[in-house]
Amino acid sequence: MKSDEVEALVFDVFGTVVDWRTSVIEESAAFGARHGIDTDWPAFADEWRHAGYSGGMKRVASGDLPWMKVDALHRMKLDEMLSDLGVTSVSEDEIHRLSYVWHRLKPWPDTPEGLDRLRTKYTVASLSNGNVSLLTDMAKNGGFRWDCVLSAELAHAYKPDPKAYETTADLLSLPTERVMMVAAHKHDLEAARATGMRTAFIRRPDEFGPDNPPPDLTPDSPSGVPYDYVADGFIDLADQMGCE
Amino acid sequence: MKSDEVEALVFDVFGTVVDWRTSVIEESAAFGARHGIDTDWPAFADEWRHAGYSGGMKRVASGDLPWMKVDALHRMKLDEMLSDLGVTSVSEDEIHRLSYVWHRLKPWPDTPEGLDRLRTKYTVASLSNGNVSLLTDMAKNGGFRWDCVLSAELAHAYKPDPKAYETTADLLSLPTERVMMVAAHKHDLEAARATGMRTAFIRRPDEFGPDNPPPDLTPDSPSGVPYDYVADGFIDLADQMGCE
């Protein structure tokens, strides 16, 4: 691939741009300490992410739930987990604030500089299942910057639904072939490629923390079609793409 | 109004954030000089804006034209004007580039600093009839910055259709009452207020240039309901809103 054929890079966010797990564990444990709630906070974060977010999106995709923002899926699961823990006396304001921890996830250390360098040659946008306001708050809180905030919310269809990728390219006024999906998750890249997008696989060895099996960091794609780039973070990607 | 009730400011762009007229005149005249086309370039810019953009949006709103991006409306009118001028030998690439002058409009001098200061306390987003890619390119080219790029394109309904304002507030996850529309055009502010938004009227005395009657700069609103703010540009607005 000649990298100058691509005009825009679109980024998966949870796990690729930000370290969701450390941020959620820290804020959840602090919430627990304030309210006298004791549980396994890393497991709490993992359940919130996997059953609440991923599981919730699958229920939306299957039609079991109507379209809703990821904020609403996060809140629904949080209410259920707090109920299971017997929590009844915490104020609505406090619960709302914890449910919005996903708006305050911290970036990986290379994110701000890497995105800034990539932006010198490319349009740099999010393409997350997170809703627009979540992504907007997250970038402000995290000190990193998008040229525009794009989201599966704008298609009312979660990745890996092709509509999420196709709507994004349409909003960028580009054919999918001139857009590159940047993600730490191979299923996201496969779905993007199926719509015509280029692909960059980012290795994030610490996404799932020390308590879980490590992510698949091999450079091979499930389909056997090579990724256009394989990089250890965004500074490495910027180096490979000639962005100073 | 207590300004701390508002969480997000959304900005009209053409005329409010950027000086569309000077930018379009300059690039159109340079295009003419390259291709030996002579016409009244200020009148050319005014016709492109008023008949092409404003007139085109009215045709979309009435159902006379299907939904399309402002880029497409700009291109349709440009083709018509070039045809009227007898231009037949200019390449597609050159015409496309001129039609994208709207992606390269220059900001008013106070725009970059004013938006930066307002962003310290508020979410700062565009709310233009211009399409997302146009607005994204414009901010990159013009050296100013949005927290997120929002557009009537995301509602498939042009301002002053209430859907444009309501969709914007929904994407910000805010009730319209916590969003303030910032615009140099009173009809835009009236339509925003009708959906519940707050209003800030920005005086841009030079929007229509020296060849046209000046804009209405009086602080009064057509409905008689006072604007929450009346400001001479964004630095003045930042001062009034306590953003340093």
Short description:
Two copies of one chain form a homodimer. Chain A has about 240 residues and is an alpha/beta fold.
| Named CATH topology of the largest domain in chain A | Rossmann fold
- How much of the sequence lies in strands of chain A comes to 5-15%
**H/E series of chain A:** EEHHHHEHEHEHEHEEH
Cα shape of chain A = globular
Q: Report the radius of gyration of chain A as a whole number of Å.
A: 18 Å
Number of helical regions of chain A: 9
**How far apart are the termini of chain A?**
20 Å
Which class do the helix and strand fractions of chain A yield? alpha/beta
Architecture overview:
2 copies of one chain form a homodimer. Chain A folds into 2 domains: 3-17 and 108-240, Rossmann fold (3-Layer(aba) Sandwich); 21-103, Putative phosphatase, domain 2 (DNA polymerase, domain 1, Orthogonal Bundle), CATH 1.10.150.240. Chain A is 44% helix and 13% strand. Chain A is built from 9 helices and 8 strands. Chain A has helices at residues 20-35, 41-62, 70-84, 92-99, 111-119, 132-142, 162-171, 186-194, 234-240, and strands at residues 8-11, 18-19, 106-107, 123-128, 148-151, 179-183, 198-202, 229-231. A 6-stranded parallel sheet of chain A has the order 5-4-1-6-7-8, with helices on both faces. In chain A, strands 2-3 form a two-stranded antiparallel ribbon. Chains A and B meet through helix 6 and strand 5 of A and helix 6 and strand 3 of B.
